[in-house]
Amino acid sequence: MDIPGIRNSMDTALLAKSPQAVVDAWKVGQLLNARVVSAPRNGQGTVNISGALLLAQTTFPLKPGQALQLEVTGQVAMTILKTLASTPGASPPVTLSLPPQPQLLTLFQTGQALSGQLIPAAGSRQPSAILELAGQRVRVQLSQPLPVTSTQTVKLEVVTPGTIASLKILTPPVTAQSNRTAIAQALRNTLPQQAPLPALLKQLAQVARPDNAGIAGITGKSSQPGSPLPQPFIEQVRRVLVDLPNIQSVRNADGLKRAVSQSGLFLEARLAQTLQQPSPTPPPADFKTGLLGLLLSLLNLRSSSAATPGGNMPGQAQSHPPGHAGATAATHASTHASRQASTPATNQAPIQTPSLAPQFQQALADLLRTVESALARIQLSQLVSSTVDDDGKRSWIVELPVRAGDNIDLIQLRIDKDAKQKTQKKTTHWTVNLALMLDGLGPLQARVSLAGTLVHTHFWAENPQTAALIDEHLNLLQQRYRAVGLTVGALKAHHGTAPEAAAPEENLPHILLDEKA
C-alpha cells in the first residue's frame, strides 16, 4: 500500500523490535500513532511509539518528525505494523472509539464489516460524532475531525472489539472537491425544473380569496365554473400565506432576519441539527415546509379526484399533511408523497359534474407543477448558497415572499462575502444586492457594501420618478447609518438598472462549467 512520497504500489511494512514490554502489549488490528525520530540507514530507523524508542526496518525512506499511523497486523518474532495512508498526500483513515456498549460489543468481531450513520457532534474538545448503528446511538471519539459537517452513511471495519471498541471508516471521505462536483451535478438537474416564484404566489393568492377559491383560482380564468376545491386544502393554502412575513415586519433588522431564517433556505440544516438532540422535535415551519405540505396534499387530492367513479368531483377531501407537518415531510417527501397518492381521500357530498372532471384534473396538474417548480427554485438557491470557493468567497441567495395588503411582493437578496484577505488585519468585505418590484414604483434594485464600519449604498430604479423619490430620502438613510455607528461613503440613487442582476439563475457559480470537458 502506498504512503506519502511513494508512487509505486508496494507492501509497506515496519518491523519493530523492543522494548519488549511495549511490543507485548500490542494486539492484532490495533492502531498506533508513531513519529519518526531518525531517518533509516540500511533500511533501519528509529520511531517513537507511546513514548518508547523502537528500531524499525522499512523498505521506503522516512523523514525525521514525520507522523505515521500504524496497524498491528501480526505478532511473531517481530511485530509487523502496516501504514494506513494509501495515496500520496491522502489523509489517514478516520478511526473511532466506542465507550462500553454491551448491546453492541457482543456483535463485534475483528475484521467485521458494518454500516452505519455518522452524525457530526459539537461540544467536545476532542473530535467526536454520534454513531447510529444497529438501531443504537452512541457518542464516539474520532482520531481526527470529519472532513464534512453533514450526516453521512459510512462503512466500518472492526479493528479491536474490546471493552473500548475501535472501528475504522472504510468509506472514502467526502472532500471539498467531491462536494463541489455533487453540487454542480445537482445544479444541472435542478435548473431546468425551477421557475420564478411570482407565478405560484399569484395562484396561491387567488385560491385563498374567499370569493374565488376554485378552478378559476388555479387557472386565473374567471369564466371557469364552480368551486370544487376542498375546504381543508383552501385553509392549508391560507396558512402558508399567513405565515409569510409582511411588509411592516421586514422594515426592521429583527424582522428581516426572521424572514430570511424562515425562507426555506435552512430547512435541511435544521433537520440535521434535530437529529443530534436526545429527543428530536420538528423545527419551526418555514416557506419550504409549507410548500412540501401543499405538494403532498395536491398528490392526495389528485388521487382522490381521479378515483371518483364517473368523473365525479370531490366536494371535500381530507388534506395530508397540514401545513405545519411539512417539516417531517422534508425528510420523507418522496415516500410519504407516493403513499399519500396511493390512498384515496374521503369524499363528502360529491358534485355530479362529469364534464368538469378533465378541467379539474388539468387545474390540479398545473398547480402541482407550479409547486414543484417553486420547490426546485428554493433548492436552486440552497445549492448556490452551499458553494464556497477555494479562496473563501461565498454567496447566499434568498427569495422572500412578503405580504403587502392583498398582494404578495417578492424580495430577492444576494449576500456576498469576499475572498479571504492575505493579512489578518484586513476586514471582511460584505455586499448585499436587493431586487424587488413594488406597486406604483416599478422595479427597484439596491446594493449595500460594508467593510468594517464603512458602508456604500446605491439604488437603481427604472422609473425616473421612483429614482427622484429615493434621492429625496437619502439624507434620512444617511442619518440612520450614522446613528448605528457607520461611516457613510457613497450614497446615490440612479435611474436605470444595476450592473448585475440578483436573480439566482443569473448568479450560478462557475462550477456549472466543467473546464475539463
From TrEMBL:
Gene3D superfamilies xref list: 3.30.750.140
Keyword terms, alphabetized: Cell projection, Cilium, Flagellum
The keyword Transit peptide is annotated on this UniProt entry: no
Residues annotated as domain Flagellar hook-length control protein-like C-terminal: 420-500
Regions of compositional bias (Low complexity) in chain numbering: 319-343
Secretion signal, residue range per the UniProt entry: none
Region spans: Disordered: 306-352
Organism, as annotated: Thiolapillus brandeum
UniProt cross-references to Pfam families, sorted A to Z: Flg_hook
Name of the protein this chain belongs to: Flagellar hook-length control protein FliK
